DNA sequence: AGTCTTATATAAGACCTTTATGCATCTGCG
DNA sequence: CGCAGATGCATAAAGGTCTTATATAAGACT
């Protein structure tokens, strides 16, 4: 599974159904690339297309139950992997990490904002 | 410039000349992929091949002056970008980050070790 | 010398991306 | 109302980077 595919599924999970162009912008790829990517996800049964009744041009991409389950499984695997790593740190180190979490979150948000402003 | 190319240049800068197979393992790609990648870097003038006199099968890949300069420029750009972001944090947040740095370094090292053990 | 292993190169194909383009639908203005 | 331009998506062609399979050359060991 490509990085972009995984990120797209995560985005759908976070924000609900989106149109193709939206997803392309969100993941920083072109619209044709997202069209192809959505097709492969659809063929894998992880998403489905729905027509927007208010604008017949747009197709809304929705997570299927299988897709949502895939995202949860993947996320849990990541959480577990990091939990195992953090288990090997000392108590002081874990405390320092916990204390830095708000700053790290802010930094991540600033970085994603900066990346959007500068083109990708 | 591909992610793998940049990582390869950084590795060469950190550890000095390396053989193709070494680089492939270090970057987690196959040897033919690294052969092609080194050729493009060579054509760009960023690295050069040298023959190992003690084993005529191996070709040692070395950073050229242009390659070293490229790595430095790229690194400085990254440092500057993060400096700008950190400038927007509060004093407390910066302190928390600084206090967490040793733990983050340990975590990164554990993670890279885990990744090597598990295949990539 | 003969055989196995190691280091690199080459070739063919898969996958993901981009630009260019086409078609359908919507929107706004005369 | 009707048509011109804008918008949303799909398709096609081409490029880049990767993989597997295979070839070639050199070292190592009996």
UniProtKB/TrEMBL annotation, chains A, B:
GO molecular function, one term: DNA-binding transcription factor activity
Keyword Protease: no
Keyword annotations from UniProtKB, A to Z: DNA-binding
SMART domains membership: HTH_MARR
Signal peptide: none
Superkingdom of the source species: Bacteria
One Pfam family matching this protein: MarR
InterPro entries: HTH-type_Bedaq_tolerance, HTH_MarR-typ, WH-like_DNA-bd_sf, WH_DNA-bd_sf
Segments forming domain HTH marR-type: 1-106
Presence of the UniProt keyword DNA-binding in the record: yes
The name this protein goes by in its record: DNA-binding transcriptional regulator, MarR family
Annotated organism of origin: Streptoalloteichus hindustanus
């Amino acid at each position: 599974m490509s990085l972009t595919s995984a990120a797209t599924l995560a985005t759908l999970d976070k924000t609900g159904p989106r149109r193709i162009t939206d997803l392309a912008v969100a993941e920083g790829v072109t619209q044709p690339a997202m069209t192809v990517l959505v097709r492969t996800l659809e063929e894998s049964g992880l998403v489905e297309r729905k027509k927007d009744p208010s604008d017949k041009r747009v197709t809304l991409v929705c997570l299927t139950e299988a897709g949502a389950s895939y995202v949860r499984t993947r996320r849990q695997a990541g959480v577990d992997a990091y939990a195992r790593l953090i288990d090997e740190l000392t108590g002081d180190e874990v405390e320092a990490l916990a204390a830095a979490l708000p700053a790290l979150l802010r930094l991540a948000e600033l970085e994603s904002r900066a990346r959007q402003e500068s083109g990708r």
